[in-house]
Specification:
single chain; 208 residues; alpha/beta; Rossmann fold; six-stranded mixed beta sheet; 8 helices; globular
């Protein structure tokens, strides 16, 4: 759990965490799960996420191991990339790949993020996939999962909005893959970045 003495945690962040701890109330989360949810609440000031973040059984341990082993991190949009870049550089410096950068042009029926996701999934099928904005990218990943074409170390599914968001999250729920998901329409790039940053800190604390 983050504390004021953790060099990766800003003192103001530590103060915010202390306030969240006082308001959080009873819960059945493990310490590692709580660390993830608390960081999401810190990023959003929304305690509803206490009830929305869902973890598969091996999600946290799989994500931590992958970070420690240098697995590539594939994100759907630049806002997620910006949200995790600094902390990743300070710690494990895994390759950080954006579905909108250095990827082939999409086919007529594809979005750019979908095309980029398929490109990076083919290149790094065992990477960490972080979706905070684009449900089409998450749906494309789930199709690859169902076809057994990829085997990610972890999928963070937190797209936000109204169109295809619930369908994408339902598709992820149906896949047997380590996953951390935000239920319902809520989510977004700050949420996805917060989940990964929490895992980075948990992984780093186990290294030092």
């Amino acid at each position: 759990m983050d504390s004021p003495s953790n060099p990766l945690t800003h003192p103001i962040t530590a103060q915010s965490f202390a306030l969240i701890d006082r308001e959080f109330g009873e819960h059945g989360l493990t310490p590692d799960q709580y660390a993830v949810v608390r960081r999401v609440i810190h990023s959003t000031a929304d305690f509803e996420f206490k009830h929305l973040v869902r973890f598969s059984q091996t999600a946290i341990e799989s994500g931590i191991a992958a970070l420690q082993q240098g697995a590539p991190v594939i994100v759907d949009v630049g806002m997620v990339q910006q949200g995790v870049r600094n902390l990743l550089r300070q710690t494990f410096d895994n390759p950080l790949l954006n579905c909108l950068e250095q990827v082939p042009a999409p086919a007529p029926e594809q979005t750019r993020t979908e095309a980029g996701l398929l490109h990076w999934a083919t290149t790094y099928p065992q990477g960490i996939f972080v979706i905070g904005n684009a449900p089409t990218a998450l749906l494309a990943l789930c199709q690859q999962l169902q076809a057994a074409n990829v085997s990610p170390a972890l999928v963070i599914g937190a797209p936000v909005g109204f169109v295809s968001v619930l369908e994408a999250k339902a598709a992820l729920s149906a896949c047997s893959v380590p996953q951390i998901q935000v239920e319902g329409r809520k989510g977004g790039s700050p949420v996805a970045a917060a989940i990964l940053n929490a895992l980075i800190i948990l992984a780093w604390e186990r290294e030092v």
